[in-house]
Amino acid sequence: MHIGPPQVMGVLNVTPDSFSDGGRFLDHAAAIDHGLRLVADGARWVDVGGESTRPGADPVPADEELRRVVPVVEALAGAGVDVSIDTRKPEVAEAAVAAGARMVNDVSAQLAGVAAATGAAFVAMHMRGDPRTMQRGPTYGDVVTDVRDFLVARAEAAAAAGVREVWIDPGIGFGKSLAHNLALLANLDVLVATGYPVLVGASRKTMIGTLAARADRSDVVPPAGDRLAGSVTTAAWAFQAGVAMVRAHEVAATLLAAEAVLAAAGGRQDLEESTSWHR
Ligand code: HH2
Q1: What is the CA radius of gyration of the chain?
Q2: Rounded to 5 degrees, what angle do the CA atoms 230, 37, 70 make?
Q3: Alpha helices in 43-124 (DSSP H)
Q4: What residues act catalytically?
Q5: DSSP 8-class letter at 246
């Protein structure tokens, strides 16, 4: 089990079309303000992305992605924020690191070379196919083993290439049915047992909307911005399974849920002692 403090990577999409916050932070000043807010709320990292990878999304040309993210990365890093760059393009990762980003979060798990060359940390995420096609009937032998084996192979290659800090992420919603996502969440210990720190991003995703519709028996899927309860509950579940970091939109609520579940799990002796007089 991961016994360090729970870490949250705050989501900052500088895009017009992200499923969760598209259009809200396309303006650089609004994006920088929101990044600072995420840190004030307790984010360990701010994950800046300039290309939506939601199912069906079209790719964004590199010059447009650069125009979106580089000034935001520069401003946040300049303010002392630990910035992660969420990209699949080597030129964007390189420019972002030059502008001060210290982690390359790569949903295609291909950019270990950039991380190795620049000294940045690296997140290898699992995705089946690419965003345009990934939700068209994904199939696996055993999804947990397939994802674990893929991630370990990518992580080992990254470490061998000289990356100093390698994270793995099962890629919730990236080429996965609801059953695949739930199997991965039920077996996070298999990923934790690899020894690589694990990152999980389920915040506001379709699976959370589907479960919300099921829970209130309405069959109405709430909009992405209205999926807080399922998002923080899933984050808490991930933390108690030993996941080191969760990628989330609502940072303060996610950290609160993490504190509660880790205290209840007995993982926070310090907290227990200081509050032992509570009824
Ligand atoms: N999910 C998204 C984007 N990047 N990176 C990691 N490591 N793990 C994830 O689960 C993950 C990710 C998709 O979410 P979001 O950025 O909110 O939306 P969009 O892709 O539409 O911009």
Answers
A1: 18
A2: 105
A3: 62-78, 90-98, 112-118
A4: 205, 247
A5: E
Q: Pocket around ligand 1: residues whose beta carbon is below 6 Å from it?
A: 11, 13, 15, 18-20, 49, 52-54, 86, 105, 107, 123, 125, 169, 171-172, 199, 201, 247
Report which of residues 131 and 181 the model is more confident about.
181
Distances in whole angstroms, Cα of residue 56 to Cα of each of 18, 47, 67, 132, 133: 11, 21, 23, 4, 6
- Do the Cβ atoms of 96 and 85 come closer than 8 Å? yes
Alpha-carbon separation of residue 257 from 222, 232, 235, 261 (angstroms):
21, 6, 8, 6
pLDDT of 252 reads 98
Atom of ligand 1 nearest to the CA of 173: 10
- Per residue in 168-208, pLDDT (tens digit) is 999 999 999 999 999 999 999 999 999 999 999 999 999 99
pLDDT for 1 equals 45
